[in-house]
Amino acid sequence: MRRSCGFGLVILAFLAALEAGAQEIPVVTAEPEAAGEVSAALPADPAPVIGRNSFSLMVGLYTTSFWARSFSVNEVGYEPNFVIALISGRDLITTPIGFRVGHESGIALRFGQDFSVEMWRAVTFSFGARLLGRVMVTPQFALGLSSVSNLIGVERPREAAEEDGDMSRLIYNGSQLAWLLEAFPFIEVFYRLHHRSGALGFWGNVPDGHNANAVGFQIRY
Q1: Is residue 36 predicted with pLDDT exceeding 50?
Q2: Would strands 115-127 and 129-131 be described as parallel, antiparallel, or unpaired?
């Protein structure tokens, strides 16, 4: 009888020890790891969607200097003639790294001391990159042909100074730098050097045409 009771007590003690050990074993699940994998797969900060089409309003003031010096906006001389322009553009080729190729058409009123109308068509090359976190900067270069209804400002003496000079139709060059906030990718503000060029005598037998330092805003859609 005593042996049976002793044997029963040993079994009860063994079962109690097993139950206590089972309570100390941690339960391992795959949910935290799976959640971590899903979080890693999702992009933390996706790039904004930039529209292919654009429409711009630009205003500027014509300089009395040549192309290279006109970038020095605080040191260059200005003439009493202004430009206000509407520009329509479209990106035909876009790449994941931000490089784009497209075209633009522009029409401008040139007024002040004189009055004239300008129209141009150009191919555009641009590259968008992030700068300072939420700000995107896009340099753009436009190259095409420009035609005016009549000459204004320094265009007249520059044409007269060259034998067989013709500044009615010149090469168009638009060097532009634009900024946008990633929270508002549909609108940009920009600076552009609005330039008509003879390409050092290659076109129209004139070295330079006319330059305007301009600012504007651009709607993308």
Answers
A1: no
A2: unpaired
Q: How many CB atoms lie within 10 A of CB 172?
A: 23
The reported pTM is: 0.75
- Looking at residue 78, what is its pLDDT? 93
* pLDDT attached to residue 137: 94
- CA dihedral of residues 123, 129, 134, 140 (deg, nearest 10): -30
Rounded to an integer, what distance in angstroms lies between the CA atom of residue 5 and that of residue 2? 5
Q: Where are the domains of the chain?
A: 2-41, 53-220
CB 23 within 8 A of CB 178: no
Q: How distant, in Å, are the alpha carbons of 40, 72, 174 from that of 67?
A: 50, 10, 11
Residue whose tokens read 């290279």 = 68
Structure tokens at 184: 């508002």
Higher-confidence residue: 214 or 11? 214
Structure tokens at 49: 């969607």
Residue range 188-213, pLDDT digits in tens = 999 999 999 988 778 888 888 899 99
- Beta partners for 187? 219
* Cα 178-124-208 angle, rounded to 5 deg: 90
Matching CATH number, 53-220, of 2.40.160.20, 2.60.40.420, 3.40.30.10, 3.40.50.1000: 2.40.160.20
Longest dimension (CA), the chain: 134
d(CA 128, CA 137): 6
Cα angle: 68, vertex 71, 72; to 5 degrees:
110
